[in-house]
Design a protein that fits this description.
416 residues; alpha/beta; 2 domains; PRORP domain-containing protein; PRORP_C; metal-binding
């Protein structure tokens, strides 16, 4: 396309975008006709954008066919196909044959199927065979559906074995609480039953998976220093012989609100004060501290360490990162809690952790603060349940966590 013509087409694209952005839909058809009559060519991307908004522009099938005729099939993009499917799924222009035609053509040309391609199908189609085809293909195309899609599917009276499969898939995919506005929908779809969610428990499989990733990372990090690596590995192996149910990130507590001393010198009395508080609540703590902090302890602090009877003190050898040690200690004991204010973003990134780490962190990590008036520690005990759907396949029960505007979690149970 010559430069001046290409510029005219690009300028026209901007004109159409402005009309769309300002909702001046009635001017779009006239603008298209005027531009074509002047002998100019409309860019495929412009037509695709028009088709994406065509239901706001016209209710006439002749207008739609005219717009479609302006773009060659080989120039169709994902947006074009998705827009065409949305047009022919709409009640005014409904044509299931064309929906299938464009959907199959999309796959033939290896155009990625996106969730937006399917959402209008799940919200509109009521035919069982058709909806099950598109649901099944969404799994084949690796499209992650959202709650509204599952609700659209489950509104249809599909066979029980399919319904069970789709509910299980929904419970696996939706990993967060859902808005309370959806409660009336599920209350209508299924019988409500009493439901008590299960407290989160770190299973052996997830614990071993995370520990293995830690070992691989630490192995790479200290690969050139086998003696130090052996020392660290030996230290970490000691946790299997120790009895504790909460790990204290000693440096994190010791540096807390230390002002100018933060990052320089820890406060041992803070650490043992918090340890005593945990013991009074029935916990059996183990404090993780690096050797460097022990060497900097004052005579008074050394006396405090010697007289400590409430909790075990684990000293991290020189050269090792105490972060890895307290994290390893917490994860290796599947029933243990962890006390720290560390967000652990780097740990998640560098050690390539996945969803199981997020689940563990959200339920097993106790944060803390200090009352400005009394200077006493205050604990922030985590919510003990995973805030996501819980399914009991054997008894055909589904637990759903709802959240209102106050972010309070409200559980409802259903039989399906």
């Amino acid at each position: 396309m010559p430069y001046h013509k290409n510029k005219l087409s690009k300028d026209f694209h901007k004109t159409i975008r402005k009309l769309l952005d300002t909702s001046k839909y009635t001017e779009i058809i006239k603008s298209i006709i005027t531009f074509i009559e002047s002998g100019e060519t409309i860019l495929p991307d412009t037509i695709s954008n028009i088709l994406a908004n065509v239901l706001k522009i016209t209710t006439e099938i002749d207008d739609i066919n005219f717009i479609i005729s302006l773009i060659k099939e080989e120039n169709y993009t994902e947006l074009t196909y998705t827009s065409l499917i949305k047009i022919y799924i709409h009640k005014t222009f409904f044509d299931i044959d064309k929906v299938f035609y464009y959907y199959h053509l999309m796959k033939e040309y290896s155009i990625p199927i996106k969730r937006r391609t399917l959402c209008s199908i799940f919200s509109t189609i009521k035919d069982i065979e058709t909806i099950l085809y598109f649901y099944t293909d969404s799994k084949v195309q690796n499209v992650e559906l959202v709650l509204e899609d599952y609700i659209g599917i489950l509104h249809i009276d599909i066979p029980t074995h399919y319904k069970t499969m789709i509910i299980q898939d929904m419970a696996n995919v939706i990993k967060s609480p859902i808005s309370i506005k959806y409660k009336t929908i599920f209350d209508t779809l299924y019988k409500t039953i009493p439901f008590e969610p299960s407290k989160y428990f770190l299973c052996k499989k997830d614990s071993e998976k995370m520990l293995e990733k830690m070992k691989i990372y630490i192995g790479h990090f200290y690969g050139k220093n086998p003696r130090l690596l052996a020392s660290i590995s030996k230290s970490m192996g000691l946790f299997t012989k120790k009895k504790y149910d909460i790990v204290i990130d000693g440096a994190n507590v010791g540096f807390f609100k230390r002002g100018t001393m933060s990052g320089k010198k820890i406060c041992f009395s803070q650490i043992f004060e918090l340890s005593t508080l945990l013991c009074s609540l029935g916990y059996k703590p183990i404090i993780i501290l690096h050797m460097i902090h022990m060497e900097m302890a004052t005579p008074i602090e050394k006396k405090l360490i010697e007289t400590n009877r409430d909790s075990e003190l684990f000293i991290v050898p020189k050269g090792a990162d105490d972060d890895w040690v307290w994290l390893f200690a917490a994860i290796s004991n599947k029933s243990s809690m962890l006390l720290t204010n560390d967000e652990m973003r780097n740990h998640f990134h560098y050690m390539n952790f996945e969803q199981e780490f997020i689940d563990w962190k959200s339920t097993k990590v106790i944060n803390y603060d200090m009352c400005p008036d009394t200077k006493k520690f205050e604990l922030k005990i985590p919510y003990p349940y995973l805030k996501k759907m819980e399914i009991d396949m054997r008894h055909r029960k589904l637990g759903i966590p709802y959240q209102d505007d106050s972010k309070e979690t409200i559980w409802s149970g259903y039989s399906f």
